[in-house]
Amino acid sequence: MSKENYINEKCKEIEQQRKHAPQTMYRNIEEIIGKRTFLSTGCLKAMNGDIIIDKEKILERWAEYIRELFKDDRKDHNIMKNNFAGPPIMKEEVETAIKKMKHGKATGPENISVELIEALEDFGIGRKATNLLNEIYDTGQIPTDLSRSMFIALPKKPGATECEQSAS
Fold first, then answer.
1. What sign does the CA torsion over 84, 140, 71, 61 have?
2. pLDDT tens digits, 35-68
3. Res. 131 pLDDT band, cuts 50 70 90
4. Predicted confidence (pLDDT) per residue in 74-93, tens digit
5. Comparing C-alpha atoms, which of 102, 100, 95 is closest to residue 130?
6. What is the pLDDT of residue 90?
7. Quick one: which of 86, 99, 104 has its CA closest to 22?
């Protein structure tokens, strides 16, 4: 079998696996294109243009960049205006939402996976989540823990030396 025929056959397999076997699909893609490794230069440019080599200073520069990028000068923004009245959130709605969540996704900082939430259903997690959501809905106050985000900077270009994307 020629290489071109082999690749064409693999591509047909990948097309069929797209919806039903995504893990196998990704494995087949890696088989065709090979695994890619990205090398880091181990340095980064400071805002003033100086090259930073120290790992701690590189991390500080990334943190500075992320703070600047996602700067939020709003005052207390975890309070919603409750100008609406509606029916309470039902337990069945929460359970349906939990069932629709995708499996195998990365967890947040609390390390709670969809699979764990589903496994805790016997312990009344749906009822407790419904109560929490209704409290937020009724009071308009979002708990501080739910209004914070965590950003992880992942360089997209191998050997990048700047935080900002260049305009090209």
1. negative
2. 655 555 567 788 888 888 888 888 888 888 888 8
3. very high
4. 666 555 566 567 889 999 99
5. 95
6. 93
7. 104
3-state SS, the chain, equals CCHHHHHHHHHHHHHHHHHHCHHHHHHHHHHHHCCCCCCCCCCEECCCCCEECCHHHHHHHHHHHHHHHCCCCCCCCCECCCCCCCCCCCHHHHHHHHHHCCCCCCCCCCCCCHHHHHHHHHHCHHHHHHHHHHHHHHHCECCHHHHCCCCCCCCCCCCCCCCCCCCC
Residue with tokens 């106050």: 141
| Block residue for tokens 């209004």 | 147
> How many Cα neighbours within 13 Å face the side chain of 79?
4
52: β partners:
44
- pTM value surpassing 0.85: no
Q: Which structure tokens are listed for 131?
A: 């109560």
